[in-house]
Specification:
Blueprint lengths: L7 E3 L12 E2 L16 E6 L5 H14 L16 E6 L3 E2 L7 E4 L2 E10 L5 E10 L3 E4 L3 H23 L9 H10 L32 E5 L4 H14 L14 E11 L8 E15 L2 E19 L4 H30 L1
Length: 341
């Protein structure tokens, strides 16, 4: 799904609930926001380009009402340590389902995250909330604005809960800033700007991965069982066998998702098809070393509206995803060898 990079401003805050159900993200605990220095957070809005100026002004007003100095919301910080991204960006599917869109409103605090297994620092969502992708009728500008405001309010509420509340219920900026600067930073806190760090679409997260310790999980409805067997066979035939027995220490999982959701009510004869491959493992936040969670250290995924996918196509799609994973592993091994020479 293509994203339109939107308006940004420095100092963070904000977030949630929507026209559709908004689920909590994997690292949703409010404690993950404790000690966050809003002076080093950049706000980013992903929305239709014609709505961005209006949405920017609306969210900025809500930020100011939360007690932040207006002068501090006009520029991005010189070195961004985190980005709070509010996404209300419908994807048009006029060619297959007129007057409908794929929509997944969300908010995410993206900051440096350290993969526990190899210590690699990635740019990832340490805290997030939102809705799974769904197909629905096209949204008005008002609906998108309401969703963005709800997301923003949710973040403000969670941030206040984690860092203490001012008399009016909003976080006190002076209090939260002093909390953040008084905390002892992790010794491996990255000095690079957030934009200079790799994300889960880069290869860095796979460094040092030993496949014999990786467990496989295939989510594909009734086809999951035979696709799992086929995946083991494909990986073994390629010379990259996976652990076939249940591991006591489940630290890394190779997940494959090939899920179809019926759209008979919205787009008769079509399905929402989510396909992807993910390496899921434990990570922590250098800013708050005790905050640990599960994340995707590497991922490839897509969401499309298509006719129902046959078993043959599911097998072909899974095969292509695993080929991409194997190619990435080969590049990673090669890169590691070059670094050791």
């Amino acid at each position: 799904m293509s994203l339109v990079r939107g308006w940004t401003w420095g100092v963070g805050l904000a977030l949630l609930w929507s026209v559709v159900r908004l689920d909590v993200g994997a690292a949703q605990s409010a404690s993950f926001l404790r000690g966050l220095d809003l002076h080093q957070v950049r706000i980013e809005v992903l929305a239709p380009s014609d709505l961005q100026p209006q949405l920017y002004r609306h969210l900025r007003t809500r930020v100011e009402k939360a007690g932040l100095s207006p002068s501090e919301t006009t520029q991005s910080p010189p070195v961004s340590r985190a980005t709070l991204t509010v996404t209300v960006l419908p994807e048009a599917i006029e060619d297959v389902c007129p007057n409908h869109v794929i929509y997944a409103p969300s908010i995410a605090l993206v900051e440096p995250v350290s993969i526990k297994r190899n210590g690699v620092i990635l740019r990832d969502a340490a805290w997030s909330a939102g809705a799974a992708p769904r197909v629905r009728p096209s949204l008005s500008a008002t609906e998108l604005e309401q969703d963005a405001a709800h997301l923003l309010d949710r973040f403000l509420s969670e941030f206040a809960r984690a860092n203490g509340e001012a008399k009016d219920g909003a976080p006190s900026h002076s209090d939260t800033h002093s909390r953040a600067t008084a905390s002892t930073p992790s010794p491996d806190l990255p000095t690079k700007s957030l934009d200079d760090l790799p994300d889960a679409r880069d290869d860095a997260g796979l460094l040092g991965l030993l496949l014999r310790t990786v467990q496989l999980s295939v989510s594909a409805g009734q086809s999951g069982h035979w696709l799992t067997k086929r995946a083991f066979e494909q990986m073994a035939a390629a010379g990259w066998p996976l652990a076939e027995r249940e591991m006591e220490d489940k630290t890394v999982t190779l997940g494959i998702e090939l899920v179809q959701h019926s759209l008979d009510a919205e787009c008769p004869g079509l399905v929402l098809y989510e396909s992807g491959v993910f390496v899921v493992e434990e990570a922590r936040i250098p800013r708050a070393p005790d905050a640990q969670f599960w994340t995707d250290s590497w991922a490839r995924q897509s969401v499309r509206v298509v006719p129902p996918v046959s078993d043959a196509q599911l097998a072909a799609d899974q095969g292509a995803l695993l080929v991409e994973f194997i190619r990435t592993m080969k590049r990673t091994v090669s890169r590691r060898s070059d670094m050791q020479e």
